[in-house]
TrEMBL record:
Protein's membrane topology: Multi-pass membrane protein
Keywords assigned: Membrane, Transmembrane, Transmembrane helix
All residue ranges annotated as the Cyclic nucleotide-binding domain in the record: 606-721
SMART domains found in the cross-reference section: cNMP
Transmembrane regions: 25-47, 54-76, 118-138, 150-169, 189-208, 215-235, 277-296, 317-340, 352-385, 406-438
Major subcellular site: membrane
GO CC annotations, alphabetized: membrane
Subcellular location: Membrane
Domain STAS: 479-578
Organism encoding this protein: Bradyrhizobium diazoefficiens (strain JCM 10833 / BCRC 13528 / IAM 13628 / NBRC 14792 / USDA 110)
Protein's name in the database: Bll0811 protein
Amino acid sequence: MTDPAIIFSPAARFNPALRRALNDILGGSAASVLAVTFGLSYALLIFTGPLSPYLSYGIAATFISSAVLAAVIGLGSSLPFAVAGPDSSTAAVTGILAASLVERIEAANLSAPLLSPVLITLGLSTMLTGIVLCGLGLTRMGRAIRYVPYPVIGGFLGATGLLIVMGAIRVITDHPVQFATLPRFTNGVTMSELGAACAMALVLYLTWHRSRNAFGLPIILVGGMLAAHLAFRIAGISPEEARALGWMFQPPPPATFMLPWHIDDLAHYPWFAVPDLLGNVVAVIFVSASSTLFNTTGIEVAAHREANLERELNTTGAANILSGALAGYAGCISVSRSILNFSSGGRGRLSGFTVAAISLLMLAIAPELLGFMPKFVLGGLLLYLGADQLHKWLIESRKRLSKLEYLSLVAIIAIIVIWGFVPGILIGVIIGCATFAFSAARVESIKYSFDGAEYRSSLDRSRDDQEVLLAHGGKIQGLNLQSYLFFGSANRLYQHVKKLLHERPECRYLLFDFKLVTGVDSSAAYSFAQIKRSAGDLGVELILVYLPAAAEKVLRSSDFLGDGVTVIPELDHALEWCENELIAQHQGLAQEEANLRDWFAGILDSEDDADELIRRCQRLEVEAGEIIVQAGDAADSMHFILDGRVGIMIPAEQNGMTRVRSLGRYTTIGEMGLVSQTPRSATIQAEVDSVLYVLNTHQFDAIRDEAPALSRKLLTYFVSVMAERLTFANRTIAVLRR
C-alpha cells in the first residue's frame, strides 16, 4: 500500500509527526464511512413504527452518540487506534427498550407524548450502563463475564441478530413481525419491498462481506439507491409516489437535538412502566459489557496488540455516561471500524477524533441523504447485519459446540425472542450450568486403577513375602482420581466402586489417590459416605492418600473420616502399610492352617485325611456375642472350634438365656445334629472372638460317597466325643445325687 503521506506534500516525507497525523485522518475517514452508514441504519432501527415521526431526533441521538463514543474512547483507550460507536447488538437491544416503553405508554394513554419519555429512557439507561461498566472496571470484575457459559453468550447475541432482522422487516414494511400482522405481508407491494431488501442483503454478502474494502459499502449503497431511482423512472413512478407506496423514506426534517432533562418532562415521565423495563435495561448493560470485552479481544487478535480490559471498561463507561447525559444511547468499541482504521494506516488517537468530527457533520447532512434513500437499501443493510450475526451463532457455532450446547443456544434464542432478555439470561444461565454439570459428570474421575499384585511399594521384600503379595495382591485395589469431584462425577465414582467390589470380592484394602484431584464439594462427600457404607458391609478398609487440606475438611465435616478410613500422606507408604497387613495376615493364616492340620491329623491319624477334611471345610470368623446357630434351625452343619470359645444356650425365665455348656479350642459342636438330621435343640453363641471351620451336610455326604475311609474315621471320632460327653454327664448326675 502506497504511503498516503507521499500524496499530500513533500514536507510530509520529512515530518514523521505529520505523516502519522495524515495516516490517522485517512484511517479515521475510512472508518467514518462505516460509522455513518451503520448510524443511519441504527437510527431507523430504533426510531421506527410509532417513533417514525421523531426520526430527526433519532438521527441526532445516533450521531451525537457516535461522536461522543469515538472521541472519549479514542482519547482514553489502551488501543490508540480504536474507533467506537453504537454497535449492531447494542442498537438492537436499545430498539427493544424503546419499543417496550412506547407499547406501555400507548396501552395507558394513546395521546400521551412519546419523544421525551423515549429520550429520557435512552439517556438514563445509557448512563446506568456507563456506571456499571466503570464499576466493573474499577473493581476488576469485568473478567467475570468470561465465566458466563459460551452458549448463553451465543444465544444472547444470536437473539440480537434475529431482533435486528425483525427490526429491518419493520423498517422496510412499517409492520411489526407478529402473528397478528402476518396477513399484511401477503400484499404484493410488501412482498416486492422485502424481495428487494433481500436482494440488497445478498449483494452485500457476495461483495462487501468478502472484501471489507473501506469504500465498498458506500459504493454498494449508492449503487442500490441509483438503481432504485432508475427503476422508478423507467416504471414512471415519481419520488412522491414511491414514498406514498412505501418504497422510500419520507424526508425527515433537519436533525434536531434536544436535552430531555427538564422538570416538566421528568414530572410527566411514565414511571409506572419502569419495573417492566428493567429487564430490557439489564439487557442493554449486559450486551454493552460483553460487546466491550469480546470486541476488545477480537481487536487484540486481529491487530496483535494487547489491551487493558479494565481500562477499556472504565473508558467505555465514561463515554456512555457522557453520551447518556446528551440523550444518546449505548455503544462500545467497534471491531470492524477499528480494524479498518488500523488497516488504512491509522495508529493514533487522531483517528477517533476524525470519526467524531465527521459524525457531528452528519447532523446537518444525514436527513437530506435519508430523503433520497429507498427503504430496501438501508433495510437490506440491516437484514445483512442481522443475518450475519445469526449465521455466526446459528451456523458457524455448530462446528464448535457439542450437540447439547448447540441445542441450549437455540433454546436461549427462542426464549429471548418470545419472553424477553431477562428470562432468556436466567434460563440460559440455568441451562448452561446444567449442561456444564452434565458434561463435567461425563468426565472420567478415575485416571487409572491398579492392584497390589501389579503395583507395589518401593520396599524390597524377601522372596517369600513377594510370593504372598503375588498370590494375594488382588486384595489391594487402588484408584487414581482426577479433576474436580462434585455430585455428578462422585456418583459415577460410587457406581464404579460398587461394581469393583462386586467383581473383586477378595478386595480388603481400597486406596484412593487424590494427587490429581482439584477439589471436592459437599455433595461429593455424600457419595464417599455411600462408598464407605458399601465397603464396610464387605469388610473393606478405605485408604486415602495425597488428600488436600480443603478436601479433608469437606470429608471430615460429613463424618466420612473415622473408623474404616485411614489417611496416609503418600501412596508409597500406603502401599507398604497394606502389604505389611497382607503379609501379617497370611503368616497368621499359615500358622492357623498348620494348627488345624495338626489337630485333624491327630484325630484322624492321617495327614492326607486331614488335608482332605480341611479342603471340605469353610473358615468362619465370629465376634463375641454373635449367634452361630439358633435353636430350632435345621441341623445342616457342624463346627470345629479352632480358636476361641462358644456357649450352648437354652431359654430361661423372663426371656433370658442360660449357658449349659461352654466349648473351647480344639472341640466340636453340632456333630449329633449333622448325623441325625434333627433340628437344633439349643442356641450356639460365641463368647469371645472365635475362629471355626464349618462342615455342612453337602460336604459330609460328599465325604461319605467319595472318601469312605475318611467318613468312617469321622464317625468314629464323633462316637468318641459323644462317649466322653456322656461320661461327663454321668459323673455330674452322680455328684448331684449325693
